[in-house]
Design goal:
Elements (H helix, E strand, L loop, with lengths): L11 H4 L5 H11 L7 H11 L4 H6 L20 H10 L7 H14 L8 H4 L6 H16 L6 H14 L2 E2 L5 E2 L1 H11 L9 H15 L31 H10 L9 H8 L24 H17 L7
Antiparallel strand pairs: 1-2
Length: 317
């Protein structure tokens, strides 16, 4: 069934409002298939780069590509690591020198003896796939996916999956759904030249893990109850995951058409309002550099998943 037939109403005009240039630019690209030469898309992308939330983050960037803080991880949700993550999530132009400088800063810092303050992660031989996967994602999106400095990070993710099934001490050494989702998110962003058979096997293993449980219920291995975030629709998330983010990761891996994803997609569709929109939350907005309209972002992401899962209108419709 063509994806637009699943909607109660068309939310596209709302997503294309000029008040949210970043959402507008991604809507043109992802939903309306506008190419890089399209004048409307170019104008929207330029406005997105000079408007909040992207401009707010870039104004705080220092000359060496970093953001203020004792290390790349702090302050939480505002430091260098988090700023890189948010810029890519907001659709910042990956060819912009500031975006590339930010990614290089992280790669340079991770090459230092103290790993840019992240030695507490790398002193262990596994775990924290959420952090490593996020780094691989944003440096790859900034054009450094084939950089030699990325390979050890990729190999750590491959090893985390193959030997430990993404187990993490923070999850009581159980396999971690959040970690697996971010692991996939990172590896799926690698350029074709870096997508080795080993990487492809790891992506398949991760998707298999996530779909072997009832995704819409979040009943993954843990000694505690599933996070309250799991069945909410949130944007942005950082190392966390919910039903929507896991579907985004599965989609990024090219597996959104797996029949086992259908119950979670149905769960999303059941949360659509009469206007064809989805209500979203920004649970960490009070700690972020700029507020966003979470409902617009969530709606855009749900529509992108529906488009990839069900396809576009057939000719003659």
């Amino acid at each position: 069934m063509p994806w637009r037939r699943l909607l109660h109403a068309d939310p596209t005009p709302w997503l294309l409002e000029r008040s949210e240039p970043a959402v507008r630019a991604l809507t043109l690209r992802q939903l309306l298939d506008r190419g890089p030469r399209d004048a409307e898309l170019r104008e929207a992308q330029q406005r997105a780069m000079s408007s909040p939330p992207i401009s707010t983050i870039l104004k705080r960037q220092r000359s060496d590509g970093s953001w203020a803080g004792p290390n790349m991880y702090a302050p939480k949700y505002q430091g260098t690591h988090w700023s890189n993550l948010l810029l890519i999530e907001y659709g910042a132009d990956p060819g912009d020198p500031r975006i590339r400088s930010a990614a290089r800063r992280v790669l340079d810092d991770l090459g230092e003896a103290d790993r840019g303050g992240m030695g507490w992660i790398f002193k262990n031989d596994h775990g924290m796939s959420c952090f490593v996967g996020n780094v691989v994602r944003y440096v790859a999106m900034a054009g450094y996916g084939a950089d030699a400095r990325v390979e050890p990070l990729v190999q750590r993710l491959v090893r985390d999956s193959r030997r430990y099934d993404a187990a993490c001490a923070i999850n009581g050494e159980d396999p971690c759904a959040w970690g697996y989702a971010r692991l996939i998110w990172g590896l799926a962003a690698l350029p074709e030249a870096a997508r080795t058979r080993e990487v492809e096997r790891t992506l398949r293993r991760g998707v298999e893990f996530l779909l072997s449980y009832k995704l819409e219920r979040g009943r993954y291995p843990t000694a505690t109850e599933p996070s309250y975030l799991w069945r909410q629709l949130s944007f942005p998330l950082f190392y966390q995951a919910d039903v929507l983010f896991v579907l985004r990761a599965i989609d990024a891996a090219g597996e959104i058409d797996d029949p086992r994803a259908q119950p979670a997609i149905a769960w999303l569709l059941a949360r659509q309002d009469p206007r064809g929109r989805w209500a979203g939350r920004a649970p960490y907005s009070d700690r972020m550099p700029s507020r966003v309209d979470a409902s617009k972002w969530v709606t855009l992401q749900v529509l992108t998943i529906l488009k990839h899962a069900f396809g576009s209108e057939e000719k003659g419709d």
